[in-house]
Design brief:
The protein is an alpha+beta fold and 402 residues long. 56% of the residues lie in helices and 9% in strands.
Length: 402
């Protein structure tokens, strides 16, 4: 027995649960601090990604509006050219009628009937010619202005897309904080075959303008709702369309009308361009502010406390926030219709949508691309196959909506 009544230290278990509870409490507090920091990091990253998505999509929407405006300008060019085309076609028809009547007037038998008709039609032909000359002057001025508008839209809308994206990412209360800066690429639009940058459009054939106007008028006549037999309407529509083409030479001249616009068909290296290719892509990048200067600093401070403050702020949370300070997103604009390429800039059906982010093929070093092309998928040594897989998976080759 112990005469003093004290229990040996090794056998004294009083307060053991308190000591265990103390360690478990500290562990629980540290875990809660970690959860707080990770939650703040996830929230920070989500807002950064939302800002990048909003910026890329906003830029694509502006580009789609620019393409729709090109289509509207094309339609206005076709309408104004169509008015002149109708007048010139009537003038040509009257000249043909006068020529036929002149031939008939040379006949002694038909001369009494042809001469009164010639006297009646000649003033009408002169009046139509005078009206045509006045309309032609108006069309010249209008088409010069429309051509300038085409150039302004092509060069200006990429800048508007950039401004809208930056405003959406960095100057909206929804994403700022944490987004402090952002931008989209390409800055001035994709490269154009003839040099420079802008929306992917180019000048089309002038004859396309008059063909559009003539076909539209002919189709309109053949589809009129009336009691006249349909075969007669189709016949008249064909006659009108052929008559309109008679005035095409006098209307569709380079010094009278300007060229409409069409979607770029080929790059400068000769490769064909389709919807979904690089020319129709926008990539948004957001840059976040220091996550430790705003309300996210609480979570980072908690993790530092949980780690005993041994990292002086350069802990795992800080590194995660640093990586998450860049947001990536991609969007594209496309023609939402079944028309072929010739009709892409004649209807206002350009839309925008988000896409999965991929690295552009143009960003991949040419040496790697050349090695992958030469390998042809047969190389498996030295890790080249894996590199080629990465190049293939992260390149923009997806063809959509065409």
């Amino acid at each position: 027995m112990n005469p003093s009544g004290r229990r040996p230290i090794l056998c004294d278990d009083r307060g053991a649960m308190m000591l265990m509870s103390l360690f478990l409490g500290l562990l629980l507090i540290g875990t809660l601090y970690y959860i707080l920091g990770v939650g703040d990091a996830l929230l920070y990253r989500r807002v950064m990604q939302d800002g990048a998505d909003a910026g890329a999509f906003a830029a694509s929407v502006i580009a789609a509006k620019g393409m729709n405006l090109h289509a509207l300008l094309n339609v206005v060019m076709a309408v104004t050219a169509g008015v002149l085309l109708v007048i010139r076609s009537v003038e040509v028809l009257l000249e043909i009628v006068l020529a036929i009547l002149g031939g008939l007037a040379a006949s002694i038998v038909l001369a009494p009937k042809a001469l009164p008709l010639i006297a009646a039609i000649t003033p009408a032909e002169a009046a139509v010619e005078k009206i045509g000359d006045a309309v032609e002057q108006f069309v010249r001025i209008a088409h010069d202005a429309l051509d300038v508008a085409h150039h302004a839209v092509q060069r200006g809308y990429p800048l508007l897309a950039e401004a809208r994206a930056v405003d959406m990412m960095a100057f909206q209360d929804v994403y700022d904080p944490p987004v402090s800066a952002g931008f989209v690429v390409p800055l001035f639009g994709p490269s154009l075959p003839d040099g420079g940058r802008g929306l992917p459009v180019e000048e089309a054939d002038i004859g396309t303008l008059c063909d559009r106007a003539a076909n539209a008028l002919g189709d309109r006549l053949s589809n009129v709702s009336t009691r006249v037999p349909r075969w007669l309407l189709k016949f008249l529509g064909g006659v009108v369309a052929k008559a309109l083409r008679l005035g095409k030479r006098r209307t569709c001249a380079e010094d009278i009308v300007e060229s409409p616009r069409g979607v770029v068909a080929r790059r400068s290296d000769g490769t064909q361009v389709w919807l979904g290719h690089e020319e129709f892509q926008y990539r948004g990048y957001t840059i976040g502010g220091d996550p430790h200067r705003r309300h996210w600093k609480t979570g980072e401070r908690g993790i530092r406390v949980a780690q005993g403050g041994r990292t002086q702020g350069r802990n795992g949370s800080y590194e995660a926030h640093a990586v998450g300070r860049i947001g990536l997103a991609q969007a594209e604009y496309y023609f939402d219709g079944r028309e072929d390429r010739a009709g892409w800039l004649w209807k206002q059906r350009w839309r925008a949508r988000l896409r999965r982010f991929r690295i552009s093929r143009s960003w991949v070093p040419s040496g790697i691309s050349g090695a992958c092309s030469a390998a042809g998928g047969r190389v498996s040594a030295g890790g080249l196959a894996a590199v080629c897989d990465v190049v293939r998976d992260f390149s923009i080759n997806a063809i959509s909506a065409h």
